[in-house]
Write a structure and sequence with these properties.
This protein is mainly α. The chain is built from 11 helices and no strands. The N terminus is likely disordered. It comes from Danio rerio (Zebrafish).
């Protein structure tokens, strides 16, 4: 009971800050895998062969080939291209989703009489918190995706679209207005809801299952095992929506901010499956998983340790 009273007294802004700090650390550590994943997901989207149009060659064949190609052709620091808006995104997204989930678990939805947070409530809380956090953070995700693709555009002889974070924001607003900052927000929010379902719900459920049914104490071993499970489930559920989101957000746009390749996320989904097959929706799954596993591990270990250091009970 003392822990609940302590948590209710602890300022929400402090919990938001701890979540954002843990997410920033995880993002810096694993960002090269996110860049690799994005390059793999974009690959092949321009191949239509209609009217003798240009066909994009398949430059990379896998995660290691993609990463090695980026280092060889663009330089090792390019593996972190786009990390600034990615950190901005996680300050908003992870800070918001963690705070929202914990508030719903402790107050809005509430635990059962035996102190267990039912799985069905965890599903609702995780999807709502993920969707809300991602909708607010969607502009930073759009900038991140576009900046990640600049290295490849230069190698293909195309002019750069953006020169930095500020230029990317101003250009998007100039082309599509404020609404342009939320281009691709539907698949973005869909993906976030699914990933958050896999991440938050799985971590919370597995962790408390281990604490109730095994002799494992509430320490780094418990946190690590729970985070590994959450990373796998999140990658499996979120990859198709991530592919659609990345393609919609990266496509060229006309003067009114409308996409030139896809009308919406459904159109992108249909075109991708029709031209490249169902498993095109799982392009980049391995780097997504290989990134989510260490990201989840780094985030949850950092987050739990920060809470302990600040005198807050375990999540």
């Amino acid at each position: 009971m003392s822990h609940l009273q302590e948590n209710s007294r602890w300022p929400r802004v402090s919990k938001f800050t701890l979540s954002a700090c843990a997410a920033a650390v995880a993002e810096l550590v694993t960002f090269p895998l996110d860049l690799t994943k994005t390059r793999l997901q974009i690959q092949g989207e321009g191949r239509s062969g209609k009217n003798g149009g240009s066909v994009q060659t398949q430059k990379y064949r896998g995660m290691l080939s993609t990463a090695a190609g980026i280092v060889r052709e663009e330089g090792p620091l390019k593996l972190w291209q786009g990390v600034t808006p990615a950190i901005y995104r996680h300050i908003v997204y992870s800070g918001g989703r963690m705070l929202a989930y914990e508030q719903m678990r402790e107050s809005v939805l509430g635990k059962s009489e035996d102190g267990i947070f039912p799985v069905w409530k965890a599903v609702i809380a995780s999807m709502i918190s993920g969707a809300l956090g991602q909708f607010i953070a969607s502009p930073t995700d759009l900038v991140k995706v576009q900046m990640q693709m600049e290295g490849r555009r230069r190698l293909e002889g195309k002019p750069p679209r953006v020169r930095g974070v500020y230029h990317a924001f101003t250009k998007i607003v100039a082309q599509g207005g404020i609404r342009g900052l939320w281009a691709g927000w539907v698949p973005n929010v869909q993906r976030a809801a699914l990933v958050n379902l896999g991440d938050l719900m799985t971590y919370d459920t597995v962790k408390h299952f281990l604490l109730r049914n095994t002799s494992i104490p509430d320490n780094s071993i418990c946190h690590g095992l729970s985070s590994i499970c959450s990373g796998l489930v999140a990658a499996t559920m979120g990859t198709p929506a991530d592919v659609v989101k990345t393609r919609v957000m990266n496509q060229p746009r006309d003067s009114n901010g409308r996409g030139l390749l896809y009308r919406n996320s459904t159109d992108c989904l249909v075109q991708s499956v029709r031209r490249e097959g169902f498993f095109s929706l799982y392009k980049g799954f391995l780097p997504t998983w290989f990134r989510m596993a260490p990201w989840s591990l780094t985030f949850w270990l950092t987050f739990e340790q920060l809470r302990r250091a600040m005198g807050i009970s375990s999540f």
